[in-house]
Amino acid sequence: MERRKLHAQGPVFSRIIAGAWRWNLPEAAVNQLIDASLEQGITTFDHADIYGDHSNEVIFGNILRRNPSLRQKMELVTKCGIKFPSAHRPSSWVKHYDTSREHIFWSVENSLKTLATDRIDLLLIHRPDPLLNPEEVAEAFGLLKQSGKVLHFGVSNFTPAQFEMLQSYISFPLVTNQIEISLASHAPLFDGSLDILMKHRVAPMAWSPLGGGKLIADHAAVFSKASKYTATETQMALAWLLKHPAGIFPVIGTTKPERIAESAHAIDINLDVQDWFEMLKIVQGKEMP
Amino acid sequence: MERRKLHAQGPVFSRIIAGAWRWNLPEAAVNQLIDASLEQGITTFDHADIYGDHSNEVIFGNILRRNPSLRQKMELVTKCGIKFPSAHRPSSWVKHYDTSREHIFWSVENSLKTLATDRIDLLLIHRPDPLLNPEEVAEAFGLLKQSGKVLHFGVSNFTPAQFEMLQSYISFPLVTNQIEISLASHAPLFDGSLDILMKHRVAPMAWSPLGGGKLIADHAAVFSKASKYTATETQMALAWLLKHPAGIFPVIGTTKPERIAESAHAIDINLDVQDWFEMLKIVQGKEMP
Amino acid sequence: MERRKLHAQGPVFSRIIAGAWRWNLPEAAVNQLIDASLEQGITTFDHADIYGDHSNEVIFGNILRRNPSLRQKMELVTKCGIKFPSAHRPSSWVKHYDTSREHIFWSVENSLKTLATDRIDLLLIHRPDPLLNPEEVAEAFGLLKQSGKVLHFGVSNFTPAQFEMLQSYISFPLVTNQIEISLASHAPLFDGSLDILMKHRVAPMAWSPLGGGKLIADHAAVFSKASKYTATETQMALAWLLKHPAGIFPVIGTTKPERIAESAHAIDINLDVQDWFEMLKIVQGKEMP
């Protein structure tokens, strides 16, 4: 598995990242998924405080607590900033965002404790908060970096303007913007989302890199060259993302160990440029101008 | 009333600004509105050459002419650049913009004379002129600043690209972009309009901060928490804007003295973050993602 | 004919540029078009590798080959990066883009040979390639500049974000973005396309400056002031573009020598600002706000 920096001053991650979004499963099953990932060289795990209604960090952390040596073999990403009504968070009565200094600190302490770790490799602001106070966020990030509790910082689902605004307040680089990109959601290739990251020499992380079920359902033809590459549909979809010069890190969301191995092998596929454009043509319903 | 700088090098304004857009009234009535504003600590008055078909500056200036000491108690904003067919401007036969050096100079001299003042605290280009020549505008602004006739400069209704383009030609900061923002016009929170200003450390001014009548007509539920804050609908709508970290200066447009006092008290309301998001949810018709 | 730099460090071009897009004609006819252009002081010729299914550079080059002294009287622009299925390019089976270092080098060598010249005055990336690797492009541009084979570099049809991204990788300025602008395609005046170029002090080139047939068909009224200026419809449409402060260089696409002379005279028309806005009002179907 290729390992690569998200930014010159950023962390080294496995090019394919295991997403814990749907890992709301018995510990034994999550343990299997962790082992299957590490076996493939997928060492980076993507969390958020809210995944599994605030449970997935807990389950993952219980495994690390029982097997502390695992922590040295992996990098941990988590997110903060979204609050919604939940039995686990009784003070929220409407879905909202909270990127106050106080909540960032609280959320980091909570994730450290829950994940049974002394450091988060990468912390992301989960969603662009219209009430985000960039001076507060900058101060919180600076103190967390200084304390060693969080090593690197980034954002998720930010527009180019939001990314550049927040970056302008922070004295070290944001190292990623985790956004939705896939053959089914290809707008970021054209609307400036990837351009702004390339301008800042920042690699994107891609959530939902397979585009959910709709890609296969709506555009089966996109995979017509799979046999040429002896590849599965999943591998074709990931190889399409990996070909982009922005250096996308796909976050795979599977809950099946065998799909982790399958996804990992996408890294070895180098799509021909014309095949890449043909796949784009199929999902766009027209050729490039 | 809170007083605050629009930009580190900008003027100090009252956080709530009195807009003279609809002050096309008998002098006695305007005098009452001025007194009611000053009484509330609202010391900043927002004009444009064209308001009231070029009459509102005249009415306001007549009051200052009779009572010159008033000028020291207030800051004056005015705008230039729009021309339209009018008995007062017989040379215009189609609505158009004019941001030529010559017209900016003419318009400033005219506003100084009309407003009976020796200085304009803040001059805004009223609309983004597709024929705006940034070198001409930069030269005009520079000479007007040097002469002391205009102390600060900004724009109105500019897109982020237009703002950054013009700023790149001017050696001192533009100190505001006056745009339409309200619960009824909340796109600027998401489309980069506020982000670009925060990036430049520039505070926005908000015109039509109550969203006209349509807000109350279409979204009465947005004010359901008014009683919790012992607030009126107007105060809730202003408090919602004042909460935004961009540091918005609402320009209120009322023609009723009692509404000025009502609006001024919005400054004391600190909306709970969840209430703020609930109000946004109601006007958007959906919760945040 | 006015001559002007595209950028302080860019080439000096004739303000009106002759486009070879449709010059897929017998050599004698192209020779006539070249002579008619030079006679009007139109010394800049706009090519692309693909025009006339890869034939127009060949025809033009044959003329230069027979009359080498012509080359000193003109500036040559060409483009690269688009590939499509064609008998002349049998290796392409789907329309796609190729901005690899290897293809840029190959395409420049091919254009030099085909155009019978030792230098290209300006090379453009024809379309924003989603697979464009900015480091590769920067390296290719740098080496081509050093070798003297290409004197200046730019892009075509790039969005503002794409332009700034690529520029951030190149140590010398991109000197233009050739985009579609006309009375029929006036979005670039408002969507940031021209603003970003003005911010970078880069002049746009305009393709299809007359808007094809649709402008005259849909909006005949736009030319109602032609008689006031003793101008033709073509001249009015070009004068409208030439008035814009971005300093647009229209690329005219005619195949008739007499239309070249007609177009050249547009340079002498200085539209009144109100006439300019009236023309805009007619194509927009509404006056400015």
TrEMBL record, chains A, B, C:
InterPro entries, alphabetized: AKR_Detox_Biosynth (IPR050523), NAD(P)_OxRdtase_dom_sf (IPR036812), NADP_OxRdtase_dom (IPR023210)
Gene3D superfamilies the UniProt entry points to: NADP-dependent oxidoreductase domain (3.20.20.100)
Residue span(s) of domain NADP-dependent oxidoreductase: 15-279
Any one annotated GO CC term: cytosol
Domain of life from the UniProt record: Bacteria
PANTHER family in the cross-refs: NADH-SPECIFIC METHYLGLYOXAL REDUCTASE-RELATED (PTHR43364), OXIDOREDUCTASE YDHF (PTHR43364:SF1)
Protein name: Predicted oxidoreductase
